[in-house]
Write a structure and sequence with these properties.
8-stranded mixed sheet, 778 residues
Length: 778
């Protein structure tokens, strides 16, 4: 069969017969089967690489089929090559074709053939990475307090194929906790920690395909974490905190971190906020304080405060107590005082200083310590019952060893009526004057204010009385006055017989008056000593007596002894002793060995004669005699005890009773007193001198006054301190002969004051007339 075809060679529409040309004549037909699709190489490639697909038919049919290629939804024309019965597609891999199917299609142009067959499919795998680096954004603030959350988010347009992996890094730390990956996003929720402060955070996207070489990091986000120090500052002292005033004290506060924002430092000492001397370096703050007394025993501390209120950090360190040693000063006023006699006065002295002070009260007129207290900041001079002797200037001194002692002075004026002063020598009230000698009576008075009237009165042997006037009848009267003292002198150049008698002086001031009588007579031998006492101990004796009137001349005492006891037997003289004054107790211990019965006498003598005391005696036992007596006593006691035991045993055996007999032998050895006291046993009460009886009476009166006036004494005269001071107290002020110590006689009541108007020097006058200052006695 011949078919006509249109050919450009022969012209369109012209049917040519090709039978004559071809060996035989062929009709229309299509390929017998669908095209076969094969791959030339791999269909899994990286983006940009080529993929070759090939379709094959056994025949193209007649007329020949037409080829077409489709990948996914795209019909591809580019890269198609048709050769013979094959069609080949060369495809440049693109991510949009990833996992898309490709196939070819053969279609016959002859509608009558109805050939339109597709090949099988081939799935394309395209490996690709995201086109750009991830984009980092912050979800909320990146400046937060420690413990709060920060959210960062990274985003990609595609994860790539294979999908990228996410990672997060903050500072040097790779974070895995708090990471959430969703779609093309990765989100990091970070709990703010101080270690991330000012660190940068970023994400990183990495393709698992090494050939893609995709490992891109996002931009960075700086994290700001606000935090406070984890603890309060630690306070230490650099060196000693106990220094002298003016020296430096260094304190240091330390933190492990200053926090963010950095804390501010402040220093407080006592109630003062200090800014001078503060140096802040790193995590330390150092205070260098010039010590001042106002900081003594004050506590210092530092304070660290965060400027961010939400952190609520305002912490103080521990404290250091500052000790500042500084010289003491007297802070109280010490004024002048005027008080009445027997009145009470308290003067207080307050001292500021460190260490504590030793406060000393000094009576200036005779430089005598009245009171001393150690380790105190206050001291009081308390006069419970003032008297004339308390009058004068006082100085209080405070010393703590840190500089010059602080001193204050005060003056105490005691209003008192006149009385004799014991400080200076007084004329005795009994005077013996030789022929054609002069008369001089010196009276030293204590009083305040000064006397308004001074008058001498004379009463002679004929009992006639007259007032003595100055420069009349040969008498001269002189006076010298001080603040609270007045010296009055009566003088006559030559004394006649009619001048013997009693001279009485009367002194009057605004407070009261005082009188004193002096008996003037012709000089004579002294009176014999009184109150002769002898105390005997083993191999020694002690003799004591009281001096009597010296007869108007200085006297001496001669001590004599005898072992016979017969007044006709000569006595042996031992010692001559000078007189200490009228009514003064004298004593003497012989330096020779004596034994047996001893008799003593004391002879008082002056230029006019002598007088001898009564005798006293005692028995002095030697050491051998004493031992012998003790031995005999012991032997006698033992013999008697043994005899008693034997007698008991005999009785028991004789009675033959079934008694149980227990014998207890207790030997008592009598201890012989080593001190054997003896007195003059021959002297009865009728022989006791008037002076001795008077002393005994005075002692009774003193005991009564002591009980009645127990409250009128100075308080707290004890000297305080680490070591008891041996400085003399106010008892030494108007001293007697033995170290200027006051006699222990209480004369503080007003009743006593009426009868006790004179204060005599104990060298010259009787003890019964003494005005004694007991204000400062313990």
């Amino acid at each position: 069969m011949c078919a006509g075809v249109s050919s450009p060679l022969f012209g369109y529409g012209t049917l040519s017969l090709i039978c004559l040309i071809l060996p035989h004549c062929v009709g229309t037909y299509s390929p017998p089967a669908a095209p076969q699709l094969t791959t030339v190489g791999s269909t899994s490639v990286d983006e940009g690489q080529s993929i070759i697909l090939r379709c094959t038919l056994s025949t193209l049919g007649n007329p020949p089929i037409m080829w077409s290629w489709q990948c996914g939804y795209d019909t591809l024309t580019t890269g198609v090559t048709n050769t013979g019965t094959q069609s080949e597609l060369t495809l440049t891999a693109n991510r949009k074709y990833n996992q898309r199917t490709c196939q070819c299609r053969a279609t016959s142009p002859s509608l009558s053939l109805s050939y339109n067959r597709a090949s099988g499919t081939q799935t394309i795998t395209v490996y690709y990475s995201p086109p750009v680096a991830p984009q980092l954004t912050a979800v909320g603030s990146t400046s937060v307090d420690e413990g709060q959350s920060i959210t960062l988010r990274c985003t990609l347009s595609t994860l790539g194929n294979p999908p990228i992996t996410w990672s997060w890094q903050c500072g040097y730390d790779t974070l895995t906790t708090g990471v959430t990956n969703t779609g093309t996003q990765s989100e990091l929720t970070l709990t703010a920690n101080r270690k991330y402060n000012q660190r940068t955070c970023q994400c990183r996207a990495t393709s698992p395909s090494l050939s893609l070489s995709y490992n891109r990091a996002s931009g960075t986000q700086t994290i700001t974490v606000y935090y406070s120090p984890p603890a309060a500052p630690q306070l230490t002292a650099v060196g000693s905190t106990s220094v002298d005033e003016g020296q430096s004290i260094t304190l240091r506060c330390t933190l492990s971190t200053l926090g963010n924002p950095p804390i501010t430092w402040s220093w407080l000492c006592g109630d003062d906020r200090l800014t001078t001397g503060v140096t802040n370096t790193g995590t330390q703050s150092e205070l260098t304080l010039t010590s001042n007394r106002k900081y003594n025993q004050r506590t210092c501390q530092c304070r660290a405060t965060s400027l961010r209120p939400s952190l609520s950090y305002n912490a103080t360190s521990g404290t250091h107590t500052i000790t500042v040693y500084y010289n003491n000063v007297i802070t109280s006023k010490v004024n002048e005082h005027v008080i009445s006699e027997h009145g009470r006065l308290e003067i207080k002295c307050d001292v500021d200083g460190n260490p504590l002070s030793t406060i000393t009260w000094l009576f200036v007129p005779n430089n005598t310590v009245v009171k001393r207290e150690s380790d105190v900041h206050s001291s009081s001079l308390d006069i419970l019952s003032a008297n004339c002797l308390d009058h004068g200037n006082y100085k209080v001194t405070a010393d703590n060893g840190k500089g010059p002692a602080a001193t204050r002075r005060t003056h105490i004026a005691v209003r008192c009526k006149p009385r004799l002063d014991s400080v200076d020598v007084q004329t005795p009230d009994k005077l013996g004057i030789g022929n054609n000698e002069s008369l001089q009576i010196l009276v030293r008075m204590l009083l305040y204010p000064q006397a308004t009237l001074t008058q001498w009165t004379f009463v002679g042997k004929n009992n006639e009385s007259r007032v003595i006037l100055n420069n009349r009848g040969g008498y001269s009267i002189t006076e010298s006055k001080g603040e609270n003292k007045q010296n009055i002198s009566l003088y006559k150049r030559r004394v006649d017989t009619e001048d013997f008698g009693n001279y009485t002086i009367m002194v009057l001031n605004d407070v009261g008056n005082s009188t004193r009588t002096y008996h003037v007579d012709a000089a004579r031998p002294p009176l014999k000593p009184t109150n002769l006492t002898l105390v005997c101990v083993t191999s020694s004796v002690k003799l004591s007596w009281i001096s009597n009137f010296n007869g108007g001349d200085s006297q001496t005492f001669k001590i004599s002894y005898s072992t016979k006891g017969n007044l006709l037997t000569p006595y042996t003289d031992l010692k001559n002793i000078s007189d200490k004054g009228y009514g003064i107790l004298h004593s003497y211990t012989p330096g020779i060995g004596l034994q047996g019965a001893i008799w003593f006498t004391i002879t008082a003598s002056n230029m006019f004669g002598e007088s001898t005391s009564d005798t006293v005696h005692c028995i002095v036992k030697g050491i051998e005699e004493k031992v012998s007596h003790q031995t005999g006593t012991i032997v006698g006691s033992v013999v008697a005890s043994v005899a008693f035991i034997v007698a008991v045993l005999v009785i028991v055996i004789f009675l033959r009773r079934p008694y149980k007999c227990t014998c207890m032998l207790k030997m008592g050895i009598e201890r012989i007193d080593e001190n054997v006291k003896a007195a003059d046993m021959s002297k009865d009460e009728s022989q006791i001198s008037l002076a001795e009886q008077h002393v005994q009476g005075e002692r009774i009166v003193y005991e009564e006054l002591k009980e009645r006036e127990a409250g009128n004494q100075y308080q707290d005269l004890s000297i305080k301190g680490k070591e008891e001071s041996k400085t003399q107290t106010y008892e030494n002020i108007q001293g007697s002969n033995a170290g200027n110590k006051y006699e222990a006689t209480s004369t503080v009541s007003k009743k006593q004051d009426e009868r006790d108007q004179t204060y005599y020097n104990t060298r010259m006058v009787t003890p019964t007339d003494v005005y004694v200052n007991t204000s400062f006695q313990n």
